[in-house]
Specification:
By secondary structure, the protein is α+β, with helices and mostly antiparallel strands.
Length: 622
């Protein structure tokens, strides 16, 4: 027998244990849910291994998760006959936290400044919740692959160190012994344990049993206290809303209820069951497109893998749940899954089902859809670029701010926008900018406000990229008002063109401006779409917008200078004053100032702001 070895915890684990012991105590009972969930995972993994590698792993048909108490020693024991661990796995799983989310977990807790137990399971650190109620935790485990009666014992009091010892263990699997704090002995009461299991773990597929000892008969029995049936295999009519919610919490470790779910048994070319949930809150890693996401995969009720991303497009990575296929082989790997034709068919079916679920939510419960959109709207905006087949369905699920809604809150659907289009309006108009405020105050909007034409205000970073793929909706083309658009001229009344000067005088004025600005601009023209603004700039219809150029530049890419079209409002009092100038030097200064003003309004910055300020001060003095 080897000598007991002492190890120090990884620094992140020390921080975590300190939080568990001293801070996270608002819902102590979650420790039992986490340990039972881990035991269930261990049983599922062994079942899969025994099928994929029968020469190395043997799985008993009789699986169990047992809970026993010892009131004399104040110990609570949770054991299973799952896959177990060898020494290296014990060190990796219990002494260090390889999961990249640990630091984020600690940061989130620090930012919240409160004892938020709801994050424990989501960050994969559920085992350490044992220390919420324990002074010491002992783990006795034997890997299923190990044919000898030897195992590993891990022990810690949560004080920064742990020991590892070699032990005799006749059965494979893991046994966790919690030495409870004096004030936590309520968790030794059978009724309390039953209540927790019924609340959180009723639908664990493996039977959860508790040991009962009859003092009079001097007989001990193991009584099953959960249903131990895979919930997704039951008829929908036999499952309550509460059971659906608790199952969601079991598979996701999320304390919040899901917004909506869809449970379907599909028969036809392929037979499968899907149980899909839309969460109420986004996970901490939702923006990491490379991070693990996807559905739990079962084949003929046998657990195969977590995070099977092959069944979900990336823009639906917030969806949680499972799929149970009768057609896929039990020994399928992630690589084979990716290229499998059945996978592609199931992916299409599941994608359609999720979009239908979101359509139902959008049409029947605006309050819940608002919650969904606020959490996952930015992710869904990736859809038009990724999924051309379902682009029109996705477009109908998008929500926007607009000048008519007059709020940064994104609540307007494209269907409602089209319904409210004015007579003669041919396109869906939008503007992109860095923020809602800058979009809503843009001089480009003056004409649209006057005419009662709604304009979508797009200020999310993804919007400019999305609109490259979202080109039309219900046969109405999208049009950026930052770009040149000849169709708008049809909406201008003739009496709005109150020419102060003759056509010849206007032409001469435009010619002078072109001579002054030369290569600084692409073209100069008069416009009757401005009211309170003397001049604006816009890009040509086939050229990059200002916002797109900003995105490329922020990504470190070289962007060629944009040559803008310079539009002058001949009805503005300042422009009229400039047209009457006989001093060529002053005229040059004023034209340059108008261009710089227009560029500042469009871009939010200037290449040389000091030059602009100097020019403005000079003209103010004159």
């Amino acid at each position: 027998m080897k000598k007991k070895e002492k190890y120090k915890f990884q620094s992140e684990v020390k921080q975590l244990l300190h939080l568990m012991i001293h801070s996270l105590y608002s819902n102590k009972e979650i420790f039992l849910r986490e340990l039972i969930s881990n035991a269930s995972d261990a049983i599922d993994k062994l079942r899969f291994k025994s099928i994929s590698s029968p020469e190395e792993y043997h799985n008993d048909s009789d699986v169990w998760i047992n809970i026993s108490t010892n009131k004399k020693n104040n110990t609570l024991t949770i054991s299973d006959n799952g896959i177990g661990m060898n020494k290296q796995e014990v060190i990796e799983n219990l002494g260090t936290i390889a999961k990249s989310g640990t630091k984020e977990f600690l940061n989130v807790l620090g930012q919240k400044g409160k004892k938020d137990h709801q994050l424990i399971g989501q960050f994969g650190v559920g085992f350490y919740s044992s220390f919420i109620v324990s002074t010491k935790v002992v783990v006795r485990t034997r890997a299923a692959k190990n044919k000898e009666n030897t195992g590993i014992q891990w022990e810690s009091s949560g004080d920064g160190e742990y020991t590892i010892d070699e032990i005799v263990k006749k059965e494979k699997g893991t046994e966790i012994i919690l030495f409870l704090k004096p004030e936590e002995i309520e968790f030794l009461d059978t009724w309390k344990i039953r209540n927790i299991v019924n609340k959180y773990s009723d639908h664990i597929a493996a039977p959860v049993k508790i040991f009962n000892y009859d003092e009079q008969k001097k007989i001990g029995t193991w009584d099953q206290i959960n249903k131990a049936k895979a919930l997704w295999t039951l008829k929908k009519s036999d499952i309550t809303k509460e059971e659906y919610k608790e199952f969601y919490k079991h598979i996701t470790h999320d304390f919040n209820n899901p917004i909506i779910w869809s449970h379907n048994h599909v028969e036809g070319t392929h037979e499968y069951i899907s149980l899909l949930y839309i969460p109420e809150k986004a996970t901490w890693d939702i923006w990491n497109r490379e991070n693990k996401h996807g559905l739990k995969l079962y084949v003929k009720r046998v657990y195969i893998m977590d995070d099977a991303e092959q069944f979900l497009p990336n823009y639906l990575r917030f969806v949680r749940g499972l799929i149970d296929s009768n057609d896929l082989p039990l020994n399928i790997s992630r690589e084979i899954l990716q290229a499998n034709s059945i996978t592609q068919n199931l992916r299409q079916g599941i994608t359609k089902r999720i979009l239908q679920m979101l359509e139902k939510l959008a049409n029947t419960d605006h309050k819940k859809y608002k919650i969904f959109w606020n959490q996952f709207g930015l992710v869904l905006k990736e859809g038009p670029a990724e999924d051309t087949i379902n682009k029109s369905v996705i477009a109908n699920l998008l929500r926007f701010s607009s000048i008519r809604t007059n709020s940064p809150e994104q609540i307007l659907s494209l269907s409602n926008y089209v319904k409210n289009m004015i007579p003669g309006q041919e396109k869906i108009y939008y503007i992109t900018s860095d923020s809602y405020l800058s979009a809503n105050s843009s001089p480009h909007l003056e004409f649209f406000r006057k005419k009662g034409i709604d304009v979508l205000l797009l200020s999310d970073r993804i919007d400019e990229w999305m609109m490259n793929y979202l080109t039309e909706f219900q046969e109405k083309k999208f049009q950026s008002i930052n770009k040149n658009d000849e169709s708008l001229n049809k909406l201008i009344d003739e009496n709005e063109k109150k020419e102060t000067y003759s056509e010849t005088e206007n032409e001469n004025f435009i010619k002078k401006i072109k001579e002054i600005l030369k290569d600084q601009i692409k073209d100069v023209r008069l416009t009757y779409r401005l009211i309170d603004t003397p001049a604006i700039v816009l890009t040509d219809s086939n050229e990059m917008t200002t916002q797109m150029a900003k995105l490329f530049s922020a990504a470190g890419q070289t962007v060629p200078p944009i040559k803008y079209i310079f539009e002058i409002n001949p009805n503005h009092i300042l422009v009229k004053k400039i047209m009457n100038l006989n001093n060529d030097v002053l005229l040059n200064e004023w034209i340059q100032l108008l261009l710089e003003q227009a560029l500042l309004a469009e871009k939010g910055n200037l290449d040389d702001p000091n030059k602009f300020i100097h020019r403005m001060n000079k003209l103010l003095i004159n």
